[in-house]
């Protein structure tokens, strides 16, 4: 993918992820929606930068047709991405929501499990949708 498409991929991922994560956190925590929205926007900004950097590096290491990636490779890709993000976001959550690192870890793990599943399906869908559009664009042109 070219950098502009990688940016589109990351922004679309985060817009959908933030919206869903805020809804989940509202249901499962006693924090108000304004605080949760603020922290999720901060986390999303961090995640977008991480998404761009991580996927750019991953694509340099793992080359070839993305639609042919194995299930185990997709699982590894998602786990490594989320693990790196956790390291960055736990202190941010603790600071901005005024909770302990343990509470931030528990909140972040809950969101991470949710987002990990979301990320797996998002990337699978994105890769196949992109391949479909690319194939059809070259057929009609």
TrEMBL record:
Database matches in Pfam families = BTP
Task: Name the UniProt key words of this record, in alphabetical order.
Answer: Membrane, Transmembrane, Transmembrane helix
Q: List the transmembrane segments.
A: 7-28, 34-58, 79-99, 105-125
Enumerate the spans annotated as Chlorhexidine efflux transporter domain: 3-62, 69-130
Record InterPro entries: BTP_bacteria, PACE
Can the keyword Transferase be found in this entry's annotation?
no
Q: What NCBIfam families would the database entry show? A: PACE_transport
Q: Protein name, please?
A: Membrane protein
């Amino acid at each position: 993918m070219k950098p502009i498409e990688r940016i589109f991929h990351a922004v679309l991922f985060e817009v959908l992820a933030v919206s869903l994560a805020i809804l989940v956190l509202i249901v499962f925590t006693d924090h108000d929606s304004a605080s949760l929205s603020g922290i999720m926007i901060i986390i999303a900004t961090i995640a977008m930068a991480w998404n761009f950097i991580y996927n750019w590096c991953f694509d340099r290491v793992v080359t070839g047709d993305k639609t042919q990636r194995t299930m185990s490779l997709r699982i590894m890709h998602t786990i490594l991405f989320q693990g790196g993000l956790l390291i960055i976001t736990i202190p941010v959550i603790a600071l901005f929501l005024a909770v302990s690192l343990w509470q931030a870890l528990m909140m972040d793990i809950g969101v991470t499990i949710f987002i990990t599943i979301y990320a797996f399906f998002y990337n699978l869908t994105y890769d196949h949708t992109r391949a479909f559009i690319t194939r059809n664009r070259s057929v009609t042109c």
